[in-house]
């Protein structure tokens, strides 16, 4: 679809009130059918996802408000406490004062000069090349106007596992959402939302307690499980996994019925939660896992390989939440370009055009979340004047973690189309120098366009393979490697990821990422007076693109260590994953998930680079050795039992242990061990007695 078409406001969709799940639809084509919108209005409120501003805002907000705000409202501009803050300042302090009532009168620049009374959408869209809608994951403007998101939301499949939080999808919020956000009511609404957040926290606590109670009740409820349906009714047919021939038959008849798949997923979740009690006799855990993965793949339209890879990242119940969240769009967010304006002024200008927006949250002093707009948000005069960048909230994170300082020398190793480069330029107040590199020359065009549009004067654009650094240049105070990745964190934006990634892609990507991360580290000046940092990020959630890459870097470069990212939220990185153990410090990395943080899936790791020295290498090696090593029980026989007051080896005493160890080793190699000698085999009791 061309850009023009993408930006055009979609005509209102008619929503047939026929319940979505009454139709006997077959799976597979569900996402592709245009008439789905008519057929499947969501029968209940969309899932509420906790917003990062801590206000408990819901993604459904856009839906509700969009229908209410048809007229071109021109809210009057008032002094409402949109106190803007210096980029790079103390975020926490500024966050506190974000909605204070003292107004900063000093206006920089005059937006009126740009103000258009009537905005002609088509005119504003202009020729395609004027806008950077390049395919970068982070900085893609909404493909259609905000209003059309409404129909996309309505398309969302019903949740498989309803949670308590769904029930609390607040009715109370609706009154508030009826009202457009204006400069008048913004501070007041913010306070209200914060109160709601507190209430939500309480609800969460109650939910957790209720869950705990439920778990306890389930313990006592042994016999009921077998015949209960999801509503607790006793007379439904007990669930059984389909046999191979039943599956064959399903395939022959065009795939399973959607309701059947839903029920099967629900039941598999239930069984896997308490396998020993609920599984059918003779069925293994892996059979249930295989079934639920196959059903997830067909229900949500993934290839089975990726469905399994993503499924395994989470506890079963949470995995469904993750897949669900990929079906809903993330909030549309913009980043104020503080080189040209202040957030308050930008918000004022956009509100005047009928844009419904709010600050994203306290963790950023430049982000705005757009709920609804009468004008295409990627083509307002403010956009064209470079006052903001359309940018996913998640893509602010690596820049915040890197925290580039004025007058530094910075490398953005994979930078197109420049969302993060231009953010860094703003934090550096257009001082110092940023080398914005991208291997893809074509993509550097949109990077250059953004650099110009946003008025960044400290950026040098270049196009090398990142693996050529630091040979081409090095000695940077800070380096950002926002690595090329599979995009498993941005599936809601690019659903093609669901089917176009194979095992080989992940292997190749992980390999490239490992090469790039070493080059990024080596490009840092360890003697930098102000920095010496490297941030690695991806918009993917897979372990091989994230923790495994970071762990590899730690192993290969003893002169680096992981640091706290400084980000206020996010889930700790994995230190163990499916039999792999990573350096314990990998838990300092941060993961971000759509179903938890209501932003794209993302990963951020921050490294401090020190001077290479032999002593450091030895120290790191020692640290690594001193870490507890998990040994498979199979090999435990090689370990000499710890005996208090150990007085040295006694060959005769140790013989049974050594013999036993030898027997096990031989068995492991498939050899037949010799019969045991007459000496008693070692046992814990013997050791204790001897001790
Ligand atoms: C996730 S995108 C970067 C997004 C960018 N940081 C931003 O915020 O706008 C990854 C980029 O890596 C580039 N890339 C791929 N392989 C590369 C390589 N070997 N060296 C440098 N850049 C590469 C791609 O062209 C792509 O633009």
UniProtKB/TrEMBL annotation:
Record keyword Cell membrane present: no
Active site positions, chain numbering: 539 (nucleophile)
Comp. bias regions, Basic and acidic residues: 30-79, 89-99
Compositional bias annotation for Acidic residues: 100-123, 131-140, 171-181
Binding residues for S-adenosyl-L-methionine: 414-420, 438, 465, 482
A GO MF term: RNA binding
The entry's keywords: Methyltransferase, Nucleus, Ribosome biogenesis, RNA-binding, S-adenosyl-L-methionine, Transferase
Name of the protein described by the UniProt record: Nucleolar protein 2
Native species: Hebeloma cylindrosporum
